[in-house]
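Help wanted!
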Amino acid sequence: MKTRDRILHSSLALFNHEGEPNTTTVDIANELDISPGNLYYHFKGKDVIIAELFDQYEHGITEILKAPIDRPLSVEDNWFYLYVVFEEMYKYRFLYRNLSDLLARYPELGRRFRRLVDLKHAAITAVWRTLSEAAVVSTSDEEAEALVDNMVLLLTYWLNYDHLLHQDRPPALIIHQGVYQLMSMIAPYLGEQQRDFYEQVRNIYRTLIAPAAAK
Amino acid sequence: MKTRDRILHSSLALFNHEGEPNTTTVDIANELDISPGNLYYHFKGKDVIIAELFDQYEHGITEILKAPIDRPLSVEDNWFYLYVVFEEMYKYRFLYRNLSDLLARYPELGRRFRRLVDLKHAAITAVWRTLSEAAVVSTSDEEAEALVDNMVLLLTYWLNYDHLLHQDRPPALIIHQGVYQLMSMIAPYLGEQQRDFYEQVRNIYRTLIAPAAAK
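Answered by r_m:
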């Protein structure tokens, strides 16, 4: 790996584990066993590293979020899709942990973050449309609108909520429960013929969340 | 008002409007037209002011959250109750805006914040139990558990989500929409006889959210 990429890789790990406000460029240099001068040669400060990591995240999550908008998923793939979205967010979770602070320091990020929330909204709406057209779910437009808003909010803040309550749980657990919580929002609207499939998927998630409690 | 209370009052207003990280004790002194030395006489730094404001918030919201646990609300009062909870949170919204950063700086607050989330959970469960016992709603225990979790998450992050998307909207609008989003989570579980009442309340909220769009 090139030094530049190693710096980005270690910075992301430190920001995620120690918190971005608690990590200095000296910490990053120490972690990599390079001199602060060498780090400065590649990045002129922490701000530039954060901007570069945000670019990476924006690129990755945009690709993922566009997928169901460009081409509808199969009914069964929708649940797995939600997993993929959470997984990508989890990789860059430091961005969400300190969102207000980051946006106050980098006002330009605000616009780009809002664009991502809009894209999440469009992706979840596309997922919902697929389920509706397959007669998996049934709602009025008004119900669908409020439901999609609630799902986007959960998608945006789930990682923060889990961190507030449990600090650092294993990622698979955090992400599976996130998907499970999203599924339970959809559940009451599912038609009878899809309930069996849903119950199966839900039990898999429940087994992962609480192995002892699962049937 | 005593100087000490004026300092707290102005600090809260500045933290909420300008963001706590962007507000210094000098800003607070300037706002009140007192000397930094006079402010220091009352509070030995911004940390002490934040701790005092958190105490106020903790005291106020604890009282509110305990109400339905100690004594069940009437069915109709539950919706108004959710409004009161949001209103109290809105008064101290700076605490939620920068939660991760605040918790990193004051680890002791983490435990107290988690206690408040637990209390929110107990309050929402109590609300849910009242609705269930009045046969307003009907769910399995498993459904109720996931629903209450989703409601507590929305209650905790709604103000942040609204701020991320819209910056500063009028408080009545933010809070009403928060209640509306919570109501729409409950809606699919409502029995027929309560749907009319629910639709009426929902229309009031929708009129406030989007006067032009409402019927």
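OP: Thanks! One thing I noticed: Chain B touches chain A through 36 residues (CB under 8 Å).
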